[in-house]
Amino acid sequence: MSTQPETVETVTRFAPSPTGFLHIGGARTALFNWLYARGRGGKFLLRIEDTDRERSTPEATEAILKGMEWLGLDHDGDVISQFDRADRHREVALELLEAGKAYKCFATQDEIQAFRDAAKAEGKSTLFRSPWRDADPATHPDAPYVVRLKAPRDGATVIRDQVQGDVTIRNDQLDDLVLLRSDGTPVYMLAVVVDDHDMGVTHVIRGDDHLNNAARQMAIIEAMGWPVPVYAHIPLIHGPDGKKLSKRHGALGVEEYRDMGYPAAGMRNYLARLGWSHGDDEFFDDAQAKEWFDITGIGKSPARLDFKKMDNICGQHIAATEDAALLHELEGFLAATGRPALEPAKREMMLSAMPVLKERAKTFPELLDKAHFCLTDRPIGVEDKAAKNLTEDSRAWLSDLTPQLQSATWDRQTLEGLLNSFAEDRGLKFGQLAGPLRAALAGRAATPSVFDMMLVLGQEETLLRIGDAGA
Asked: Which residues bind ATP (predicted)?
């Protein structure tokens, strides 16, 4: 049995089953494969394992593709449908049959069950051993049959896993795998092996729930004389409580995180760190992730989803993103979640406000909330908490302040000097003046800096809003 030579181009694949949304665990598996291939100038392929026709749906396939697109995990070549390749899978099974490495098994389900019941009663292994394995073809009945692989029965199969280490499974614990069902359709286990070989996959990076499958798949690979891919079975993701990730822990689908307004770059960074590490580095960009990522950095223990850390990483990415690019992402979020698009004037104001807005915002809804002052229109609706700052005295202050603002040069230094002097002249702390200004400019008690809002809104709009509040 040969292994992949060092000089072969790195080819990885992500092979989800289209039975639902793109699970956060599946997204991490896709990301690991993407990073490994992209960091080595290789190929990252996408295969939809849609052989389960009862559970596979076009809607689920579309959801997976959309999730991949949102995460920014581009793949090479066309999307491969496993179902469309059934003839090729069948061809390999028949090739093994012709070579005497597989055989026709005529045992019925009732016979197999009777064998298992008897073995259980006698305290023996219930692993089915077909009486047809070495039967003379002349004795074959004219009856339905499955095609089984002649798996080795002596010795052991060693999975040289890059994450789990060497995993040894005794061959006498493995059955003769069914390759073709009695209706001639190929089984999933065969399809995976054939597809990986034909697609030139060199590295199989997948969840450790597939680890036991590897031994059975290697038996097919060996029978065909094909090179064995490098295996890396990664631990699954657990919830914060250490239990298997489920709906009770929160969102499971990638699109849910998109709809909650997490930035894709932040999610890539967080998911990359979920079970993989590069020293103490927590925050990094795609270029660094591609350069650093290696299978050796993947831990053996299940990773725990940590929503606080996810928020923190995503917030850092929002803050670090260039203003125009961040606005573009924000508009994508609005479109994806069915929210109204930004009007041109609001869009320009948002762009100028971005340096103010993106600090400490962890999601796009938080960013939009901070941007309320530049997205709202006159007359400004004032929240109850902010309205308490609009007293008779504070309205008089705003009225007195207006002429000075009308003649002021509209820059930060001038405005800071003017407002601080105004407050000092009236024996006020600046906060006593800031409260009514926040109410006037945004209708809220909690807002970005008064000076930031004034500079973003501009002189004319600022004076109109102060005029409305002082009336």
From this structure: 247
For residue 253, what are the CA distances in angstroms to 25, 62, 240, 426? 9, 13, 17, 56
Entry pTM: 0.92
Q: Which residues are catalytic?
A: 247
Chain-centroid distance, C-alpha 167: 29
Q: Tell me: pLDDT of 3 over 60.
A: no
Separation CA 34–CA 284 (nearest Å): 16
pLDDT at 387: 93
Q: Which residues contact 170 (CB under 8 A, 6 or more apart)?
A: 155, 156
Q: Are 436 and 397 in contact (CB under 8 A)?
A: yes
pLDDT at 13 (0 to 100): 98
Report d(CA 37, CA 456) in Å as an integer: 44
Residue 380 is predicted with a pLDDT of 92
Q: Give dist(CA 293, CA 290) in Å, integer.
A: 6
Say which CATH architecture domain 376-471 belongs to. Orthogonal Bundle (1.10)
Q: Is the pLDDT of residue 7 over 70?
A: no
Q: Is 427 left (phi over 0), alpha (psi -120 to 50) or beta?
A: left
Mean pLDDT for 171-185 is: 95
Average pLDDT of 322-339?
Answer: 96
Average pLDDT over residues 268-295: 96
Answer for the pair 188, 51: CB distance below 8 angstroms, yes or no: yes
Encode 404-414: b = buried (16+ Cβ within 10 Å), e = exposed.
ebeebeeeeee
Has domain 83-234 been given CATH number 2.40.30.160? Answer: no
**The CATH fold of domain 11-81+236-312:** Rossmann fold (3.40.50)
Whether the CB-CB separation of 204 and 232 falls below 8 Å is answered with: yes
Mean pLDDT of the chain: 94
Residue 309 assigned to a binding site: no
Here the tokens at position 380 are 């400004």
